[in-house]
Structure formats: structure tokens, C-alpha cells
């Protein structure tokens, strides 16, 4: 008995060791070092211990707290658009793709996933070209539908830029929930589905009554991945709207706020201590989300063994 | 130091002889890497400038390694911290390299003989506040103004405007005619409006250095008429810009102009090399208009690029040899030929073959020069002055803020962190 | 078979489904095609008539010529391929093992270890760049693909473990226990029984982790920007200047950079199908 427990320990340890080693050395160690700097301030070549002063600055000096609140608000908006648009559409696409009688399945799936494979440089370029008021792609398309009056320079207006950007991001990332849900749907054994069909369920009932409960863990997974991805987002905003979240900070999210504070932007010089402090705030926000997922949601949702 | 004396002599014109003598001492060429954000100059450097240098300095090989401009500052900082930065460093102006110097990453270049070949006003951009040390040599200056489509002007029967009144008449005529967008400018990349709008025309109103030093010394305020007036001028520009200019980025404006769809492009000399490659029509340039014909003119002649030395380089002697060379006549002439519009900052007087570049450079003697207002000292605090001016220009052109409001807010934010040293 | 019945009943419905799918497909593919076909147009035509297809007057391969001449792109592709496949292999292997350990064995630390492994998702790894750079130099891995492979493996392990855990939880306990009764060791169970059952999930993870690696600009810039180790995306950046972008070359380079990801995707996509059929056979 004792030796069996020991054997089990060694199996677990050997399974975990390579992943934990690489991960700890190349991820945790560098990050811990950086996050330590949040308790210091830079003075020339020296790092001077400053206690919680960076946090005080970030939370209570209007100059920074306004930017933080603004970025936080924008980030939540960014996240809600993804939850409202990206994930439901992703689930719907996956559900349709998993219908056995659907034709051109592979073609559709590949096309739907195509945007997800692009780099943000391409995505940024594509949409700026399409949405630009100068080159007439979207105004031309709208005009052809007699909807030309709807056209606006969306990416340039404070009221519409963030929504536009969120939708660009949805367009790019929709492949992720779609593929995950699709993989989950494929994993459902035919016996279960056949049993439901024999009970007289039609396609609609089959999805809502049988498949959906079975893929709930995956749906929760896509939600938490969306949350993490959105609160860490940076590249797309940086590529299309710059480090300042133009126009007028209306697309500024935590990632861009952190980047420009950490590395500086144009004439503004970088402050790596304050930048790391913002990263720490991002860390805690995501930590709360992931903890809820790991300790509450994952426990509540029944994981059916198939 | 004998070394710098030798280099001084070399600068005086005996470079060839000296190198000929010293070359056998260095059998293996030393490779120096040059950090820069100027990818668009890579061809000129790799095919013209570096080969010319290596021809006379066979002991040194230079690798030009540009980094994507928006990533350059971040990358360079990380490389310095990690100890992997190149030997030769492309320097932006003022505080960015000053910080690198203060952290010990940029070495001092004040003992180089070439320093003597630069006017004091140009060295300021790469010196400590008290002027006691110099950390980069000035390399490239860029000048502001307006580039225009000559064919379009001929077609519409227009001539270069000299005064603001003429400028507005020209804009009105282009607009009424309707074939061309009058002004190729957008406000999506706010820096474009700030740099090519306010900082371009502003010096004419605040009299160049007089106004800039006034703000630094606290004797002038942004709420003074000479600083509000350029905002008021910009407030009129929106009507002459392309519809949807709110979403028009900097490179959109460039395309609009080089495709021949816009008549006037408020910008500067740094556009010349790219426009030469892209635009297939005649271009001209006119300087910032004045109030009355014959008024004294002011031109922004900005200290834009410098070149410095990694303090931790393994080959300081070779880096210095290269830096000395960039301060001399040969480099100035090569730069003038290969990259017209990126004007050398040294006292050398190269000849320019490019007509547009010649027009721009002629303003150096006609007008009083100044640099971009928020770059020296004033760019240090937060809210960042340059970013705020740029955003306000976008607001003003878009009609969501008045010039007076913008000026008052800018002054208030400046006061929040900046206390002028002396009244 | 039951399949025939819903098909008949829903022919109007299924028409609607096809129309909806086609419409969405168009919105997904049109922008990409826009980049691809503009990459063989003259710059004037790109901005003059971005919508129109390349024709006699506007066709221009200058971008591709520039890319071909300016840089060692075949080499860059090779580098990107080595880095992507290398980190993908390590991520999947170690990720599968870790996920199995965390889901199969309920030990005291398992949830905390799961949390620990997700920390990597919570802080932008960019912030640790300086420490990573120093580490890579200390290990003598500067300007090697190995450095990038290790960093990307560490970067992708969290999401891999997170996703695979969810799917491993669905594998039948009876099956594993039966194997154990037959005397199979845990590694045998993992590689022989569990992995085949979650192949769709593994293929999905493979696709997810490969994309950010292929498209990353930052770490190649810092850790491997020598000519011999440059990646495609880093190589494409040379056409982006401070003021001028060589649009032709950029579009050409970006179009070329899409191709390998597409090929890899199609390869993994076959795994998805393979997983499906195997599941049915079982």
C-alpha cells in the first residue's frame, strides 16, 4: 500500500515535471522578477524601495487613476461584446457544422477559421483598408446596397471606435470558441445521440436537451479563455489605434495603458515600475476570474464522462 | 587625447592617407551593428553610405539593423538591459536618449573631434540639461512646410501662397473646383495633426525660438494669442480635408497625395525620398505662410536623428571612428544624395540635386530656425504635452473643442507638473 | 435511419442554414482575399480601386520581387517552421502529460497546481522579457531557435493544460480502469487510450498554439533577430518604415506568411476528422 502511494507520487511527478520545469523557468521566474519591481522606483541607475507608492499613484493620483478607470471600463465593454457576439455565434457555427448531414463541412469550417490564423498586422491592415473613408471599400459596398448614408469613419470617432475594434477582434477570434465547441460536440458518442433520437428528439431538442448540457464545461472554458484573452488584449488595438488608444483614449484598454506606461510612447518616457504595477492589477483581475472558474464553475458544472 | 586629435586631422581631409597608414594594424575587420528605427533608409545605408565608409575604413564592417519603428524604443531598452544592444545606436532626440544616457547605456561622445563640426544649437538635442556632456552626435534634421501637387496647381491656375490670406484663397479655390482634396491630412493618427499642423505652422505665430523659450522660461503661456492663433487657423482646416478625415491615418494621407488626389500636403522634408519613389507628378514646396508679405519667416528645422555609442560596446575605438566619419563632409554629401530631405546637421555644406530638397534647404538661410516646441524639457511630465497638443488638434479640427479651451487646458496641465526655472 | 427524417422536414430550414453559412463564409474570406489579390496589384491600384481584381493594367508582382530580392525569405520560412513545430511538439507532449496528471489523479495540490499553471495567462509575458533575455544569454542560447522554442512552450503550456483538462475529464473512467486491470501502466493508458479519444481536442489545441507562435514579432525581435534566425513575420517588418511602408512588399510578405499556417491547419484538420471517425468506430 505504502509503496503503491509512492509509485503514484512518482508517476504524477514525472508527468508534471517537464511542463512545470519549462514553465517555471521561462514564465514564472521572469514574471516574478518583474512584479517585484512594483515595490520599487527608478532613480537613475538605481532601484529604490518605495513600498506601495506605485499602487498609491496608480489608484489615487487622478492622472493615472482616470486612465486606469477608463481602460478598465473599455476592457469590460470589449469583453461584453465578445461574450455577446463572439461566443454565441461561435457556438451556433459549431452546432451547425456538427450536423452530420451538412455538406461542404470541411470547407465551411476552414473558411470560418481562416481569420483566426491571421496575424494582427494583417487583420489591422485589412480592416483599416475596408473601413477607411478614402478608399471606398465599405462605403462602396454600402452604396451598392443603397445604404451609403449609413457610412461613417467608424474607427476615427470616439463613439464608435471601441465597438468597431471589438467587432474586428470578434471577427478574428471567433474560430477559437467555434473549434473548441466543435471538438466537444464531436466527442459526444453516437450512442447517446441515437438514444435521444430513439426517444423522439428532433434536431432542435437534441441540441438543447442533450448536446448542450454535455458541452457545458467547454462553454465555460470558452468563457474563461475569452475573459483572459480580452483582459490581456493588446496587439490589435496597438496595431490599429496606437499605444494611446485613439481617438482620445476611447479604445485604450489595460494592455495599451500598460505598454505605454512601461515602455513609453513617443515623447512620454517609460516607467517600468508603474507599468509593472498596472500589469499587477491586470494579474489580479484575471486571477479573480480564473479562480472563480477553477474553484466555483468547474466544480458546479457536471462533467459527464462519455 | 591623441586619438581625437588624430581624428580631427582626419576630418580636415587627410582621412584617406591616415587610414591607409593605420589599416594594416587591423587585419580582421571588426563588425559593428547599428540599431535604428529607420527601415526605409536601409537601402541607402546598405548600398551607398556603408560601402563608402568601408572603402576608406577596411578595418570596420557595419551592419545596419533596423527595428520596426513602433517597437524600437521598447526593444532597444530591453536589449540594453539584457546587454545585447548593438554598438552604434540611432538616437531619437532629447529625453529618450537622455534617459538611456542617465541609466548608463549611452556612452559620452563629447570628446570626439567631430563635435566641433556641429552648431551648438543642434547639439542641444543630445546633451545633458547643463550641457556638460554630449551623448549622441547630431545626424539628420528635418524641415517642415507644405508640399503641393504642381500639376494640380497649374491645372487650377494657382500659385504658391505667401500669406495666410492667399493660403485660404487657394484652399477655397481647390475646394470649389472639387477635383482635388485641398488638404491631405487626417486626424486618426493624432500625432500627424499635432506635428504637421500645430508644430508646422505654430513657429510662424510664436516667432520660433522666442516663443518656445518663452514657454520654457515661463514668460509665455499657451493662452497667449500667439499660441492660440495656430489652433484657430487649424480650426478652419477641417472643411478642406477629405470627408471622413477622422478615420484617415497618416499613411492614408500619404497615399491620397501620392495618388494625385490631393493638392496640398502639410508635412515636411522627410517625405521626399518616399514621394520621389511613389508620386509620378511634379511636386513643389512652399513654406508656412506669413501674415503680410515680407514678414520675417520662421521654419521648423528639427533635430530629428542622432547617432551614439553603446557604452558597453566591445569596440569603442571603431565606433568612434565611425561616428567621427558621420560628422564629416563625405557623409553629409552621401546623405544629401541618397536621402534628400533628411538634411545633415553638421556645418558641412553638401550640394543637393533634388529640387524639392533644394527648396526646403533654402529656407534655412531665408528664415529663422527653431525646433518642435514640446521636445525639449516640456515633454518630460505627464500629461504629456506633445500627446495633448496632438489630441487637441484632432478635437479642434473635428469641431469638438475650441482653440481657447484647448489652450487653457494645455496650460493648466503643463502647470500641474512644470515649474519654469527662472522668470 | 433517423437521419432521413429531419432532412426532409427541414428542407426550407436547411436552405436558410446554407444561406447563413455562405453569408458568414463570405464575410470571413472576403477580407483575406482582398489582401491576397491586392498583393499582386500596383500600389496605385491598391489604393485607387482596392475592390477590383487585378487586371491587365493593374497587375504587378513587384511586391513579390522585392520580397524575393530584399531578404532571405526561404530561410525565414524554415526558421518559422522549426520554431513553430518545435514548440508545438514540446507544448503538446508536456501539456498532455501535465493535464493527465492534474485530471486523473485527485491529489491535494491538484487544483492549486492548476491555478499555478494558469498564472502564465494572467500577466503579459512581454513584461518578463529582460529576465528571459538574461536567462537565454546565460544558457548560451542567444540567436538560436531553441531559445524561442523554450519561451513559446512555456507561453503555451497554460492554455494547453487548461483546455486539455476539460476534455480529459470527459474520458470514461471505466475504460481506463479496464486497462489498469489488464496491467497497463499510466503512460500506456495516457498514450494508448486517452490521447486517441481526445484527438479532436489535441488538434484544436495544436492549431491554437501554433498561431500565436507563427505570428509573434516580439520575441524573435529580442532573442533571435540575426539574419540566420529571423522568422517570417520579423522579416516582413523590414517593409514597415517610420514614415513609408512598402505596401506591395508588405502585402506580398503577409500573403506568403498565411500559406504555411494554412497548410498546418489543414494537416491538423485531418486529425480532427480522424478523431471523429475513430470515435465512431469505438
From TrEMBL, chain A:
PROSITE patterns: ABC_TM1 (PS50928). Keywords: Cell membrane, Membrane, Transmembrane, Transmembrane helix, Transport. Its main location: membrane. Residues 72-293 form the ABC transmembrane type-1 domain. It holds the Pfam family BPD_transp_1. One of its GO terms (cellular component) is plasma membrane. It is found in: Cell membrane. SUPFAM superfamilies: MetI-like. The chain crosses the membrane at residues 9-32, 76-99, 111-130, 136-155, 167-188, 208-231, 243-263, 275-296. InterPro entries: MetI-like (IPR000515), MetI-like_sf (IPR035906), UgpAE/MalFG_permease (IPR050809). It is a multi-pass membrane protein. GO terms for biological process: transmembrane transport. Belongs to the binding-protein-dependent transport system permease family. This is Sugar ABC transporter permease. It comes from Devosia nanyangense.
UniProtKB/TrEMBL annotation, chain B:
Keywords: Periplasm, Signal, Sugar transport, Transport. It is found in: Periplasm. GO terms for biological process: transmembrane transport. Transmembrane segments: none annotated. It comes from the Bacteria. Part of a binding-protein-dependent transport system for a sugar. Pfam families: SBP_bac_1. Belongs to the bacterial solute-binding protein 1 family. The keyword Lipid biosynthesis does not apply. It comes from Devosia nanyangense. Residues 1-27 form the signal peptide. Its main location: periplasm. This is Probable sugar-binding periplasmic protein. The keyword Signal applies. GO terms for cellular component: periplasmic space.
Amino acid at each position: 500500500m505504502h509503496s503503491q502511494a509512492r509509485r503514484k507520487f512518482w508517476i504524477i511527478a514525472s508527468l508534471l515535471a517537464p511542463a512545470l520545469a519549462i514553465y517555471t523557468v521561462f514564465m514564472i521566474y521572469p514574471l516574478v522578477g518583474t512584479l517585484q519591481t512594483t515595490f520599487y522606483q527608478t532613480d537613475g541607475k538605481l532601484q529604490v524601495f518605495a513600498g506601495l507608492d506605485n499602487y498609491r499613484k496608480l489608484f489615487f493620483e487622478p492622472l493615472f487613476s482616470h486612465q486606469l478607470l477608463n481602460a478598465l471600463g473599455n476592457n469590460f465593454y470589449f469583453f461584453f461584446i465578445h461574450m455577446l457576439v463572439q461566443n454565441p455565434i461561435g457556438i451556433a457555427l459549431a452546432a451547425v457544422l456538427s450536423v452530420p448531414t451538412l455538406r461542404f463541412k470541411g470547407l465551411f469550417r476552414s473558411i470560418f477559421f481562416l481569420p483566426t490564423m491571421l496575424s494582427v498586422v494583417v487583420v489591422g491592415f485589412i480592416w483599416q483598408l475596408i473601413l477607411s473613408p478614402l478608399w471606398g471599400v465599405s462605403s462602396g459596398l454600402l452604396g451598392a446596397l443603397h445604404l451609403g448614408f449609413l457610412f461613417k469613419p467608424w474607427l476615427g470617432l470616439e463613439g464608435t471606435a471601441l465597438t468597431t475594434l471589438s467587432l474586428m477582434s470578434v471577427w478574428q477570434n471567433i474560430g477559437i470558441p467555434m473549434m473548441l465547441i466543435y471538438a466537444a460536440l464531436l466527442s459526444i458518442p453516437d450512442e447517446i445521440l441515437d438514444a435521444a433520437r430513439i426517444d423522439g428528439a428532433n434536431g432542435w431538442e437534441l441540441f438543447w436537451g442533450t448536446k448542450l448540457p454535455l458541452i457545458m464545461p467547454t462553454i465555460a472554458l470558452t468563457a474563461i479563455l475569452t475573459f483572459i484573452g480580452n483582459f490581456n488584449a493588446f496587439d490589435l488595438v496597438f496595431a490599429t489605434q496606437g499605444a494611446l488608444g485613439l481617438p482620445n483614449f476611447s479604445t485604450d484598454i489595460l494592455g495599451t495603458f500598460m505598454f505605454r506606461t512601461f515602455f513609453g510612447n513617443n515623447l512620454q518616457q517609460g516607467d517600468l515600475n508603474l507599468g509593472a504595477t498596472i500589469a499587477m492589477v491586470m494579474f489580479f483581475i484575471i486571477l479573480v476570474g480564473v479562480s472563480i472558474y477553477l474553484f466555483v464553475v468547474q466544480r458546479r458544472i457536471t462533467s459527464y464522462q462519455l | 587625447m591623441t586619438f581625437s586629435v588624430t581624428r580631427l586631422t582626419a576630418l580636415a581631409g587627410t582621412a584617406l592617407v591616415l587610414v591607409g597608414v593605420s589599416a594594416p594594424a587591423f587585419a580582421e575587420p571588426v563588425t559593428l551593428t547599428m540599431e535604428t528605427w529607420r527601415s526605409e533608409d536601409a537601402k541607402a545605408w546598405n548600398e551607398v553610405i556603408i560601402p563608402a565608409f568601408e572603402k576608406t575604413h577596411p578595418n570596420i564592417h557595419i551592419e545596419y539593423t533596423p527595428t520596426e519603428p513602433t517597437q524600437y524604443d521598447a526593444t532597444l531598452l530591453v536589449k540594453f538591459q539584457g546587454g545585447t544592444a548593438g554598438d552604434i545606436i540611432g538616437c531619437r532626440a532629447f529625453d529618450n536618449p537622455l534617459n538611456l544616457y542617465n541609466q548608463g547605456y549611452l556612452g559620452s561622445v563629447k570628446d570626439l573631434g567631430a563635435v566641433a563640426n556641429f552648431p551648438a544649437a543642434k547639439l542641444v538635442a543630445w546633451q545633458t540639461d547643463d550641457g556638460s556632456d554630449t551623448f549622441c552626435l547630431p545626424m539628420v534634421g528635418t524641415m517642415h512646410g507644405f508640399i503641393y501637387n504642381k500639376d494640380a496647381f497649374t491645372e487650377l491656375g494657382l500659385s504658391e501662397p505667401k500669406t495666410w490670406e492667399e493660403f485660404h484663397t487657394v484652399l477655397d479655390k481647390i475646394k470649389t473646383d472639387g477635383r482635388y482634396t485641398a488638404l491631405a491630412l487626417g486626424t486618426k493618427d493624432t500625432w500627424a495633426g499635432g506635428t504637421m499642423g500645430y508644430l508646422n505652422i505654430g513657429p510662424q505665430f510664436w516667432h520660433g525660438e522666442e516663443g518656445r523659450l518663452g514657454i520654457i522660461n515661463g514668460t509665455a503661456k499657451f493662452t497667449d494669442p500667439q499660441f492660440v492663433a495656430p489652433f484657430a487657423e487649424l480650426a478652419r482646416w477641417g472643411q478642406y480635408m477629405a470627408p471622413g478625415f477622422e478615420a484617415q491615418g497618416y499613411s492614408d494621407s500619404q497615399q491620397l497625395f501620392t495618388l494625385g488626389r490631393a493638392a496640398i500636403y502639410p508635412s515636411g522634408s522627410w517625405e521626399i525620398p518616399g514621394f520621389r519613389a511613389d508620386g509620378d507628378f511634379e511636386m513643389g514646396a512652399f513654406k508656412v505662410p506669413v501674415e503680410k508679405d515680407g514678414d520675417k519667416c520662421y521654419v521648423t528645422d528639427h533635430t530629428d536623428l542622432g547617432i551614439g555609442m553603446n557604452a558597453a560596446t566591445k569596440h569603442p575605438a571603431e565606433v568612434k571612428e565611425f561616428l567621427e566619419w558621420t560628422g564629416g563632409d563625405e557623409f553629409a554629401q552621401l546623405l544629401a544624395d541618397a536621402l534628400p530631405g533628411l538634411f545633415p546637421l553638421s556645418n558641412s555644406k553638401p550640394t543637393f540635386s533634388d529640387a524639392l530638397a533644394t527648396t526646403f534647404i533654402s529656407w534655412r538661410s531665408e528664415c529663422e530656425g527653431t525646433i518642435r516646441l514640446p521636445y525639449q524639457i516640456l515633454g518630460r511630465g505627464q500629461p504629456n504635452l506633445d500627446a495633448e497638443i496632438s489630441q487637441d488638434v484632432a478635437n479642434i479640427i473635428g469641431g469638438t473643442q475650441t482653440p481657447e479651451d484647448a489652450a487653457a487646458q494645455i496650460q493648466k496641465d503643463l502647470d500641474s507638473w512644470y515649474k519654469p526655472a527662472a522668470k | 435511419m433517423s437521419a432521413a427524417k429531419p432532412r426532409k422536414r427541414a428542407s426550407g430550414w436547411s436552405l436558410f442554414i446554407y444561406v447563413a453559412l455562405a453569408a458568414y463564409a463570405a464575410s470571413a474570406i472576403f477580407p483575406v482575399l482582398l489582401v491576397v489579390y491586392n498583393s499582386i496589384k500596383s500600389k496605385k491600384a491598391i489604393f485607387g480601386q482596392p475592390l477590383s481584381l487585378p487586371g491587365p493594367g493593374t497587375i504587378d508582382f513587384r511586391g513579390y520581387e522585392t520580397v524575393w530580392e530584399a531578404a532571405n525569405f526561404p530561410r525565414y520560412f524554415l526558421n518559422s517552421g522549426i520554431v513553430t513545430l518545435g514548440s508545438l511538439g514540446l507544448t503538446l507532449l508536456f501539456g498532455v502529460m501535465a493535464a493527465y496528471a492534474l485530471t486523473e489523479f485527485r491529489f491535494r495540490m491538484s487544483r492549486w497546481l492548476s491555478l499555478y499553471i494558469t498564472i502564465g495567462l494572467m500577466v503579459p509575458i512581454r513584461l518578463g522579457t529582460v529576465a528571459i533575455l538574461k536567462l537565454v544569454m546565460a544558457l548560451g542560447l542567444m540567436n538560436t531557435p531553441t531559445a524561442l522554442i523554450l519561451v513559446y512552450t512555456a507561453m503555451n503550456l497554460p492554455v494547453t493544460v487548461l483546455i486539455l483538462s476539460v476534455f480529459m475529464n470527459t474520458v470514461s473512467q471505466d475504460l481506463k480502469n479496464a486497462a489498469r486491470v489488464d496491467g497497463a501502466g499510466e503512460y500506456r493508458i495516457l498514450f494508448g487510450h486517452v490521447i486517441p479519444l481526445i484527438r479532436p481536442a489535441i488538434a484544436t489545441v495544436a492549431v491554437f498554439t501554433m498561431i500565436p507562435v507563427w505570428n509573434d514579432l516580439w520575441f524573435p525581435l529580442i532573442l533571435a533577430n540575426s539574419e540566420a534566425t529571423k522568422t517570417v513575420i520579423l522579416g516582413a517588418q523590414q517593409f514597415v518604415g517610420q514614415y513609408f511602408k512598402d505596401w506591395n512588399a508588405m502585402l506580398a510578405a503577409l500573403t506568403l506568411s498565411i500559406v504555411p499556417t494554412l497548410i498546418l491547419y489543414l494537416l491538423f484538420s485531418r486529425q480532427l476528422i480522424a478523431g471523429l471517425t475513430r470515435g465512431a468506430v469505438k
